[in-house]
Write a structure and sequence with these properties.
Shape: globular
Number of domains: 2
Oligomer: single chain
CATH topology of the largest domain: Rossmann fold
Distance between the termini: 30 Å
Structural class: alpha/beta
CATH superfamily of the largest domain: P-loop containing nucleotide triphosphate hydrolases
Number of helices: 10
Length: 239
């Protein structure tokens, strides 16, 4: 990657829920055009890290910089407007809106992307959404809802796309479709931070990885480095 300032830089953040501390000095960074993963067993702080970045749960210490600006303490909608698109765990689509309405509800090109995402491009990425464009969100299968959640995040034309549990609970064929989507996004130069449990696919398409244990980064490195040390997966990922 180019020797430039990271697109996203998280340094020494600490996050709590009430009196219960979850993150302890966690740091990570993502360069523009890079795909990075956050790995770890359930309950180790992955989703809390995402929530801290997005301002959904306030980090009480540390710094979070995006595109050179400090974003810790900003409201989540302002962080989204700066160019971070979130595909949350559980999808959280609008059940009483159609597929089309879900996609256009928050669509924008605030950063003036030269090749912005449009309905047509999202339909080309996920043809099933074109077929179901007039169906209500509540009538979609879990896989279709995940496609819709990804498409909705892309419609804000984000500089950084974050996916929390990208393929959890999906049928194998749908999982393959999501992985193919992520490969296409990487080829397009989209910056991505992804949480998932499928180490094989993550190491196939991602540039770098962070492993979290009890709210701390215990290892970081490239796909080649992770594959070369199988004990890491047994020790920290429960494989």
């Amino acid at each position: 990657m180019a020797d430039s300032a990271p697109l996203l830089e998280v340094e020494n953040i600490e996050t709590c829920y009430g009196l219960s501390q979850v993150l302890f000095g966690l740091s990570l960074s993502i360069q523009s055009g890079e795909m990075v993963t956050l790995m770890g067993r359930n309950g180790m702080g992955k989703t809390t890290t995402i929530r801290s970045i997005m301002g959904l749960t306030s980090a009480r210490a540390g710094t979070i910089r995006f595109a050179g600006s400090e974003i810790r303490g900003l409201a989540s909608f302002r962080i989204a407007k700066l160019g971070i698109g979130l595909v949350p765990e559980g999808r959280q689509i609008f059940p009483n809106l159609t597929v089309r309405e879900n996609l256009v509800a928050a669509s924008a090109n605030r950063l003036k992307a030269s090749d912005p995402w449009t309905l047509e491009k999202v339909h080309a990425l996920f043809p099933r959404l074109a077929e179901r464009r007039n169906n209500m969100g509540a009538t979609l299968s879990g896989g279709e809802q995940q496609m819709l959640a990804i498409g909705r995040a892309l419609m804000i034309n984000p500089r950084l796309l974050i996916l929390d549990e990208a393929t959890e609970g999906l049928a194998p064929l749908i999982r393959d479709e999501i992985w193919n989507c992520l490969s296409l996004l990487k080829a397009r130069g989209q910056s991505v931070l992804v949480i998932d449990k499928n180490v094989e696919n993550l190491t196939r398409i991602a540039d770098r990885h962070y492993i979290i244990e009890r709210g701390r980064v215990v290892w970081s490195g490239t796909s080649q480095e992770l594959i070369a040390v199988p004990d890491l997966q047994h020790r920290y990922l429960g494989i």
